[in-house]
Please model this.
Amino acid sequence: MMAGKPSGRSPLGEAISARLLITCRDRPGMETVVSGLLNRMGDTILALDQHSNAGYPGYSAGRAAFRRARHDRIVTWGNRTVALGDNRMKPIDSADLEDLSAQAEASHRLRANHNLHDAFTEPVQRMLNAFEPGTCVRPHRHAGPPRWELLLALTGSAAGLTFDRAGTVTERCEITAGGPLYGVEIPAATWHTLVALAPGTVLFELKEGPYQPLTDKAVAPWAPAEGEEAAPAMRQWLENAQMEDRPGPSF
Model:
């Protein structure tokens, strides 16, 4: 899979998920505290929000402490300063894709994904999605709030389908790693699904964040859920469905 992160991180660095927001107030010893956290956290992202804390005298001292502790990992834009823990690139090679496809093949759902983003709260979600022929992706849309979705074929081939509210196919695009069609962008709040057309299919997916599990997607009411008796019939229909086709009576 992906290149591993450096070992030897402290238990504190392992325990904290992805991001720590530090509010710098006028407190004694703040420089020592911040510097110590930076040294112990390793690849954890530490952020300073200048806009909300600019009125506190301790803010400037705290920002200076960050700069002295990790001057090569500071990014500043506008009124916000962010100290980045891991500034290495994330390579994606053929071994990564093969490994993810093997995970998908071994899964009972015939799917596997690998997130490139560090946290669900990030404004841009980036991931690798592997799925095998036979998997069933229930038609859905991202409408709360409306979000678009970009898909690029890295290996294999897949079909992207969009629908109206009744389930009639409005578009079908087949994307393939070798082209001529490499990817497709799904418009925001559009009913859609994906169908794997070849073994070893891996897609790069890019979509707006943050990811909110309870409101991320709404499933199509006319489509059976994964595992239901009618789901295999729907999958077979999706594999061959063309524009203006409608769902069959079997589901």
The chain has two domains: 11-83, 94-240. DSSP finds six helices and 14 strands in the chain. The first strand starts at residue 19 and ends at 21.
